[in-house]
Amino acid sequence: MENKDLLMIPGPTPVPENVLLAQAKHPIGHRSPEFSEIIGEINENLKWLHQTKQDVLTVTASGTGAMEAGIINFLSAGDRVLVGSNGKFGERWADMTEAFGLKTERIAAGWGEVLDPEAIREKLEADTNQEIKAVIVTHSETSTGVLNDLETINRHVKNHGEALIIVDAVTSLGAVSLPIDQWGLDVVASGSQKGYMIPPGLGFIAVSEKAWQAYETATLPKFYLDLGPYRKSTAKNSTPYTPPINLMYGLQAALKMMRNEGLENIFARHERNTQATRAAIEALGLPLFAPNNAASRAVTAVEPTTVEAEKVRSVMKKQFNIALAGGQNELKGRIFRIGHLGFVSERDVLTVVGALEATLRELGHETMANGAGVAAATRVLAYS
């Protein structure tokens, strides 16, 4: 049957129908009073979602663009930075800082393992001359399904006193509580096609007063992603450049949905779906790639040993029109990933688990009782 696709990858994520319909409206002038009102509403809801009193800046870019903006606006060539690297995106940020001439030290962990906060603490405490200007951390490492201990890492950064903490929250913002003001996070970047439930194209950056002070002396080259003009425009419910108007319509609608659901309910839903998915995978006799105590609320990575990961993805797509994500870089062909981020319901999780069981049987994986996956997921959902 056509038009029954189910997108279960960690981004882009499913888009609600009312968000799609909002995007179908005729565009209006981006300098009009009407559009300024829309921006004002969006800005207030972004502060609510980010749990901050500071303005959240919106740029026309992907999550990578938001992270680039979060790095180049507050640092200078030759600055020493620590970059946590335990997956594809941690490695990307280290590659980016090196490209901009920053003295980059990678605090590495194996793919599928969490960053060790103690390794970061030791580096920071040894920096008696306070040469480290930033610590860059991926909160939810999408490539492996690991959620790093940002709260503890941030506490060590705060004890250092000088360094900024720059956070990739692309797949954690909107899935797990990230109290920016309470923790005192300096720069937090995210992207629209994840927890925001709209298509790709918008990046978001929350910036602390400490980071804005660093902005005054930062010398890395920037123009379109210079956040100074964005800060001034945001305060006036405007934008420095032409925004994607119809994406902004969608963002307005999606943020309304999120406010109606409530932050705690959003986080609880992601927690239920995560635990239900992981319980189902274990009941189906498949190894989970990330440890239970550090599981991303956005995506669950599975490393099958009795069937090929890419064959699982192929059958799920051809037989059931369900899209799962594959492994990246060194994990290509080793794992498949089930996204449960954003506009994903309990029904979606049960549907995927049932289809996965049928797929596993077709591929010859028999070490499971009939209905074991759905039963395990249901037990989690029923008692949550």
Description of the molecule:
- By secondary structure, the protein is of the alpha/beta class.
- It contains 14 helices and 13 strands.
- It folds into 2 domains: 17-260, 3-Layer(aba) Sandwich (Aspartate Aminotransferase, domain 2); 263-382, Alpha-Beta Complex (Aspartate Aminotransferase, domain 1).
- The chain has helices at residues 17-23, 33-50, 63-72, 88-99, 117-126, 150-160, 180-183, 209-215, 227-235, 245-261, 263-283, 309-320, 346-362, 372-382; strands at 6-8, 56-59, 80-85, 103-108, 132-138, 140-141, 146-147, 164-168, 187-191, 203-207, 299-302, 322-326, 336-339.
- The strands form 3 sheets. It has a 7-stranded mixed beta sheet with strand order 2-10-9-8-5-3-4, sandwiched between helices.
- Substrate binds at residue 337.
